[in-house]
Amino acid sequence: MSVEGKNIMVTGGGGFIGSHLVEEYLRHGAAKVIVYDDFSSGTLENLSHMKDERLKIVKGSILNATLLGRIVKKEKINIIDHQAAKLEVYSSIVNVKEDAEVNIFGTINILNSALKNKVEKILFASSGAVYGEAKSIPQNESHPLEPHWPYGVSKLCAERYCIEYNKLHGLNATVLRYSIVYGPREWFGRVLTMFIKRIFLENKPAVIFGDGGQIRDYIYVKDLVKAHMLAIEKDDKSFGQVFNVSSGKGVNIKNLAELLIDISGKKIEVIYDDPKEGESSVYQPERLRLPKELRVFILDNSKAGALLGWKPEINLRDGLIEEIKWILKNPWRWQTKPRV
Fold it and tell me: Which of 189, 250, 305, 316 is exposed most, by the fewest CB atoms within 10 A?
């Protein structure tokens, strides 16, 4: 299946990842790209540089099944790339109901609209959070699914609906489980962005919560976008499938901070914020000290390589430099409190 000449809807298209997908679909000749977003977290600023008459923006919630269905029908949508979601682990703990409503029932609305209007392809953005603590490293798609937090539960439930619609109705759905995505336009509020802000914008020490030994798998956003493109192009291989999209490599938080300091060329130290010593002096420490925090998070991407011919191409250092260049040009984008 080719993107060229297709009408594509990107839910959450005003967000970090969604805006990169919109950009790529336009670049590859989509007839039109519809951004469907309630802009609760995405921004028009992420799309403002795309001066293209094929781009249309609709402000709407995926919980509004009537509006969603009307737009899918009116715009004769061929492909839906479903990015809209409640994204944060911490906020899912604080407001379980909202997390479930958006991530589960919003996805069901997408699936029903697609089925009713004969949409040719659905891509669903899931998360490695569905796995929970690693029982084997790296975690492949057959790893036990035991999420630790409501966010992982809602993502797992939503992706199961995608697969069931595929089995029951033949709906052409593909699930992509992301590791930690980074790059230009990333929203502020996660460990990496906090490090970058302190080191590059504030000239302050990088603050680590805990011992810094937590291991994480970072995938550059442009590599992730290529996985989406290949899932469409190699439709026969991706039909009804679940793929990890990841670097397949781990970096511990201490080494991540040290890498950023090295890139900066500044004489900045790493300091440790010990919760036992009282209230933290930076940000909102409870967001970074989650219950059942994962010690190791590395996803096996070999299935995507075998079936789709996909592999990540941007190494961590080069990807970080691109994100840093972006934020240095747009420092106001992170002049906010961390998202909750």
Answer: 305
Q: What is the structure's pLDDT at 278? A: 44
Pairing mode of beta strands 251-252, 215-216: antiparallel
pTM of full prediction above 0.90: yes
* Residue 244: closest CA among 266, 223, 268: 223
Range of 145's domain? Answer: 7-181+218-245
Supply 4's token pair.
Answer: 């060229």
Instruction: Give the chain's domain count.
Output: 2
- Same domain flag for 134 and 162: yes
The answer to whether 36 touches 9, Cβ cutoff 8 Å, is yes
CB burial string 68-100: b at 16+ within 10 A, e below: bbebbeebebbbbbbbbbbbbbbbbbebeeebb
Catalytic residue among 151, 165, 218, 220: 151
151 annotated active-site: yes
Amino acid (1-letter code) at residue 146: E
128, part of any domain: yes
| Separation between Cα atoms, residue 69 and residue 115, nearest integer Å | 10
Residue-wise pLDDT tens digits, 256-311: 999 999 999 999 999 987 555 444 445 444 555 555 678 999 999 999 999 999 99
Are residues 145 and 283 located together in one domain of the fold?
no
Cα distances (Å, whole numbers) of residue 200 to 8, 112, 209:
37, 45, 19
Cβ-contact 133, 292 below 8 angstroms: yes
CATH number at residue 281: 3.90.25.10
DSSP symbols for 1-55? --STT-EEEEETTTSHHHHHHHHHHHHTT-SEEEEEE--SS--GGGTTT---TTE
